[in-house]
Amino acid sequence: MSGLLTHRHSPLYFGIAAMVSIATLILLRAPLPAGLAEGHAMVPELSRLGGCVRCHTDEGIDPGCLACHDEIQAQLDSNSGYHAYLAETAEGDRCTSCHVDHFGGHFQVAGAVAWSDLDRDAFDHPHLEFSLLGAHDALECDTCHNPEFTPVIATLEFPEITRKQTFLGLGQDCMECHEDPHAGGLSPTCTECHDQNAFVPAPHFDHDEHYELGCAHDELECQGCHEIPEQAASSELRSLPFDQVRGLECLECHETPHRVEFSKDCFDCHPKKACVWQEGQKAMTASLHEETGFPMGRAHIEVDCAECHPSNLEYALRFPDPAHPDYQRSTETCEGCHDDEHQGQFEESYTRCRECHEIDGFNPSAFSISDHSVWPLEGSHLAVLCGGCHLVPEKENSTRVYVGTETECASCHQDPHLGQFAESAGDDCQRCHSTPVDWAAPGFDHDLDSRFPLDGDHVQVPCASCHPTVERPDGSSVVQYRPLGRECQDCHERPVRKPKSG
Question: Which secondary-structure segment (H or E) carries 432?
Fold first, then answer.
């Protein structure tokens, strides 16, 4: 032993032995050229002697990588995902083209080197239908690729070792990142209605395909028709499940303003796109109006709706309720719309207009000859128009006078005798003319009513022979009845006697 120590080559032998020992120790403890990246360093089998062949197989790096990374192999097998997209374009050791190792524990295999000269935040997802557009184009990668949205990724061989950062497993549906604001009530494909620019408005949604909106409905908030269920109302999102609506029929959302139940559907009169609800009155027909209880006769059919239903009134006044005790717009209560044409003349005699007038027209009235009892119509009076006796006074807002009309002949007729009988008969024409049936058939008895009884030949004499028509000083002419002489010579010449012959 002492000879070995004093031998001149001893330092060389000891140096070689020390180097071999150190090399062996390094080989056993750290067989790689540099430390493994953090993810790989967590796998004990890769850090031991012989661990190199797990990745560096005789077939190359790719088979070694895919032997562990079954999730990548699954993408290649299903021809989906970004790695399948790259497999069609890359050549050689495709894994090491982006993912390198042996740069120490701080190094990320899927880090900056993997992106090469690309800007990670500018990655356009060429392998996906979900390309970044609109609002998504401005997002940072970590906004979507973060543990909140990404499922836990681990290999089958080492399930206990999960990945801290990965771009795998992120779903392409909107609901993978966003909470459903419709509470699952609509199509699962958000892009049927929305695009990536903004959630509101939904440019691909056509409301008319579900319910045609008109001018009035266009102005409503969604909440006005779409109910918010309890589970949505309690959510912080306060989502709107648009499949839950108050109803599709008018009466499911609106109380009917009509007093009767019409046979027609609401949309028959009020089109969905009618900007003014009152335009529905244009569809009102005579037969439809009859369903209200008020048939439109030939007179009312010509009247504009606004005459009876003024547009400046609120609905309750514009269309009064027939069930109200004060309702006066029925077919029997004309005064609900019309002023009393007769200004109260018939209030004591008649309780309603319909006793004399028909709904089809004010004229002619149903007032008959037999109803004309105060002054019975006979003879020539039957041919006289009502206005001939019932006059309109010449003063403002006057109406034709029916009640209280004078019944004396002189109130309508001029005295044809020009006052000859004023002292004896006054205005009582019927003292001589006993009936108005025939003026020319007098009730005058010459024997009793005059001072000159008719007898003998006088009975056959025409009246005009004794009562001539004379002209008065004022130029008028009249049949003279008085004064007349009663002596014979007043009418007859005295006869001349001839002398007797001798």
Answer: none
The DSSP letter of residue 36 is P
> What percent of the chain has pLDDT above 90?
1
The first and second tokens of residue 451, run together, are 């001072």
Q: Give the pLDDT confidence of 151-207 residue by residue, as tens digits.
A: 888 888 888 888 877 888 888 788 888 887 776 667 778 888 889 888 888 899 888
Sorted by where each begins, the domain ranges of the chain are 16-130, 256-323, 408-470
Nearest to 400 by CA among 343, 351, 462: 343
Q: How far apart are CA 283 and CA 258, in angstroms?
A: 15
Look at the alpha carbons of 258, 263, 264, 265 in this order and tell me if their dihedral is positive or negative. positive
| Cα separation, 272 vs 288, whole angstroms | 20
Question: What phi and psi values does residue 52 have, to the nearest 5 degrees?
Answer: -60, -40
Rounded Cα distance, 401 and 386, in Å: 10
* CA of residue 197 relative to chain centroid, distance: 32
- Length of the chain in terms of residues written: 502
Contact 238, 231 (CB under 8 A): no
Rounded Cα–Cα distance for residues 124 and 133 (Å) = 9
CA distance 197 to 203: 10
The residue assigned the tokens 């309508």 is 412
Residues 310 and 314: their CA atoms lie apart, in Å, by: 9
What is the maximum span of the chain, computed from C-alpha positions, in angstroms?
A: 248
